Every structure is written in C-alpha cells, then in structure tokens.
Amino acid sequence: MIVLPPQTAVxxxxxxxxxxxxxxxxxIECSGKLAIGDREAVLGLPYRLKQxxxxxxxxxxxxxxxxxxxxxxxxxxRQKLTGSGSRQIMAVCIPGDAVDLQxxxxxVSDHSVQLLxxxxxxxxxxxxxxxxxxxxxxxxxAVITLTLIESSILREWVVNVGRRDSRARIAHILCEFAVRLxxxxxxxxxxxxxxxxxxxxxxxxxxxxxxxxRVLKTLEAEGLISRRRRHIRFNDWxxxxxxxxxxxxYLHIDDHDTLAQTF
Amino acid sequence: MIVLPPQTAVxxxxxxxxxxxxxxxxxIECSGKLAIGDREAVLGLPYRLKQxxxxxxxxxxxxxxxxxxxxxxxxxxRQKLTGSGSRQIMAVCIPGDAVDLQxxxxxVSDHSVQLLxxxxxxxxxxxxxxxxxxxxxxxxxAVITLTLIESSILREWVVNVGRRDSRARIAHILCEFAVRLxxxxxxxxxxxxxxxxxxxxxxxxxxxxxxxxRVLKTLEAEGLISRRRRHIRFNDWxxxxxxxxxxxxYLHIDDHDTLAQTF
DNA sequence: CGTTTAATTGAAAGCAGTCAAACTATGTGG
DNA sequence: CCACATAGTTTGACTGCTTTCAATTAAACG
Lengths: 263, 263
Fold this sequence. Notes:
The structure is a homodimer.
Chain A: H1 22-30, H2 38-43, E1 48-52, E2 57-59, E3 67-73, E4 76-81, E5 87-93, E6 112-115, E7 119-125, H3 126-135, H4 137-163, H5 166-183, E8 192-193, H6 198-205, H7 209-221, E9 225-228, E10 231-234, H8 237-244, H9 259-262
Antiparallel strand pairs in A: 1-7, 2-6, 3-7, 4-5, 4-6, 8-10, 9-10
Chain A binds a DNA duplex (30 and 30 nucleotides) through helix 7.
C-alpha cells in the first residue's frame, strides 16, 4: 500500500497523467464550466493513494465510509446480493470514475463496490469533498451532472436487463464499454480488453455464465465480433449496435462517434 | 390549465398543503440542514401550475426541456422504449417528487416521463433552479442527496429485474410502493391504491401483463395480499417482504418501519 | 507439472412468454 | 335505462428462451 502526503500544490500546466485526480477532473470539466480556482481546488484535495488486488472490496453494503475513492487505474463494479445468494452487477467503473460519490452525502452504503482488476485508487476524505462542494458552486454543479449521467446509465441498465433478449443484452453492454472506454482514450486500435469474466458479464446482464458463453460464441460465429481470450474486437460496429439496440445518447458524451472510424 | 403568477412571498407558518412545492421542500429539508433563507428561496421559486390528463407526457426522450416539473398531485413514471417496441418503466414518481431534476443540468432528455393518473404539476424554469443551486450550497447539497437516493432506488430496480423471479419482483415492487407512499403519508389504514394497470406493472418488472396477473392471484391465494380492483391490502407485511427480498435500506428513509404497526 | 479458475459443450427441465378468447367494469350515447 | 364500446383483467393451452446440471477442455499459476 502506497501512501502519499496530501497534495496541495497548484499544478498549472501539468501532464494529465501525473496527477491521480487528473482524469476525474477532466470529467468534471466536461460537465460544466468551472470558475477561477475550482480546478486548483479539485487538484488540491487531500488524498491517499492506495493499491488493491482484484476482488478487493472498496465498500460493502452497510458500511459507513468516511472517504470517497477515485479510480486512478483498474476497474471496479457495483453489486448487490439477493437473499437467495445471486448477484447483480449494476455498474462498471472505469479509470477516472469516482467510485462512491454517493457516500459524500448518504451515510450508509446501499451497495458494494468490488475490484475487477488490480487497481489504484485515491481516497479523498468525505469532509473535504463536502467542503469543496459547499464552497464552489460550479464544482457542485459538475458533481450533480456526473451523478445525473450515472443515473442515466443506470436507467439504460434497467432497460437492458428488463426488456432485451440475451443477444441484445450482451451486444449492448459491449457497445457501452467500447464507447465509455473510447471517451477516456482506453481503446486500442484493434478493440479492447474486457476486464471481466463471463460469469461477471452474466451478473451484469441478468443471465447465467453458461448462456453468456453461448451468446458470445454466436456473436463471434456471426462475424460481429472476434475474441482472443478477453480481448474483444468489433468486426461490424454498426451491426453490433443494431443487435444491441444501442444508442449513445444516454451516455451524455459530447464527442461524435469516433468509433465509427476505428471499426 | 391553471396558471398562477410566480410565487415570491415568504410563507413562514404556512400549511404544508397550501404551497405546491411544500412536499418537495419537505424532502429537501429531510436530506440536509438548510441555511437561513433557503426555505424561503425554494418556496419563492417561480412556477406555473398545470393540470394534465392520465397518459400525458411531461417529457419525451430527446426533448430539450427548459423547465423542471414537480408533481403536486398524481403519479407518473419514467420509461424508455426499446427498438423492438417494448417498454421498460424504471421509476415511479409520487406526489412531491421532482420529475425531471436531471433536466437542470443535462440538455437532452434520455427518457420519457408519462402520467399514470390525472395530475397537477408545478413547472419551474430551468434557469431559476440553476440559480438556486448555484447560490445556495445547502440546497445544492440536498438536491445532490435526492439525486443519489433516486440512484439507489434505480440500483435496486436493476437487481429486481435482473435477479429475482416473478413472484419476488412483484412482491418487492409492492413493498417499495407501500414504504414510499407511507413516508409521504399516502397510505390509508387498509392498504393503498396501486396507481397502475397490470400491464404497467409488467413493464416496471420486466414481465408480461399475463404473468403479472397470475402472480398477483397467487400472492392473493396465499393470503399475502387482498385486492379489490387496484386497491392492495397487505395481510402479512412481514411475509411479503420476505417473498420480495425487500429491505428498506436502499430507500434511505430515516423513519422506522411504521408499516409494521399498520399491517 | 499439478492445481485452480475460467471457458466450453450437451442434454434436459422449467419459468415465463405468446396467442387467443372470455369476462368484468366503466363510460357513452341514443 | 339499455345497447354498445372501450379498457383492463382473467384464464387456458402451447411454445420457447434460459436455466440447470454435469462433464470436458483450456488457460493461468505457483
């Protein structure tokens, strides 16, 4: 576990890859026009850098956390267990996401967050974030906006799980990943690394791992995707979106569909 | 359509049922300690009162609304249509709910909101709400909190639709309604009026109306509930919660389970 | 290498969907 | 007040998409 001293210096022309909160800040900046000093205030938040192994819990349902974690490297997912022991994954967090913004203002966590991969997070004290939001309206606005976008993604997950057949569900979630990763510059030329097992994919889509496997093989046999282990390549981006009933509107990302050029 | 002039007077000891935004304000007050003048600022928001028939759309997916609606009377639901034409309902709004807070900061609506019943709403200009949030940190905090609670409910819907069988899904949604309505004082002694058809219940649970009907009859035959038209009465509140795998934690309502005394 | 975890495949069973029709309540107009 | 229209509920028979169960193969790891 690496612990760094609180970072308070103003970094004016810094490399985005230097500051752990840089990607998160970028999200905030995309969600609203910040005022003078806001940027520095965000980067000046105190934090502790920590590294965790895959499978670690960042929060558990019922916890009363006193900090918020921002993913700087690696992937995580939100999950809940039902009484009968099955699991539902309701969100995947990618690098740059604030993992538990909800804990700024809600006391008891209503779900768990678990790491998909080995990951690095910046833990920010709850108080500091509360103060930041209280003292800087533009940041508050951006935080609300980010929260609203997350809600929009959640609504689409309800649709995916509630009203699409297995083929469309898998296609849809693959499209969502691709677009979200692309917006963070995490897509390689030839596709992307799906950071989850077929069982986790099943828990995210409300299916069984056996069926996920069959669907993936079908999509591959139809020439829509290629797979090499967990690496997914889109052979027909347009067709996959059609199968998945996918439209990027709900992601509220301003960019154009640059994936159309990639694939 | 009734249009009232903007309300700006300070109402200190008013009857909660007099001001259209009173119930919403109550929610805000429950979500965080307001500062001096915040209360009056909320009640002083300009608004237009409108009345709509059941089935009317308050927002449609793709719209760019310039106001936010607060439900003062009646029920509404959020929905999306899939490419194949089926519908998924992902939230039910009850009196006192802000129907489209997301439109304060997101430009294009990612889903539609349709009325379940005849309803009355107070439409607040987008700008006024943006100003309110920008100038009053405690209100901003409360708005974030309300948004976070809505997200929590959405997460539970994903679980409901993704990982519970039909019996549990219906039981769960009935429990959720009861608790939410009870928190607004909308539960009668002998149960509550379900404001939706079995087809809408089906679209909310990812089932078909035929199957919803069978499940309701089963729950009734087992003595868990009684029905008279759409009036639902809980005969065994404890058992229904067990069947529905229901826990009120995700609703983030502070009160104790007063329904346990009622039923 | 042996061990463990994940992916793959086949056969059978089941929960919920589909289709179609009857029934009920409510409202409307003659 | 009754005939009729409409919307919603109820029921039955049949189909099918996914699950379940079980076993095999492949990859990752110490």
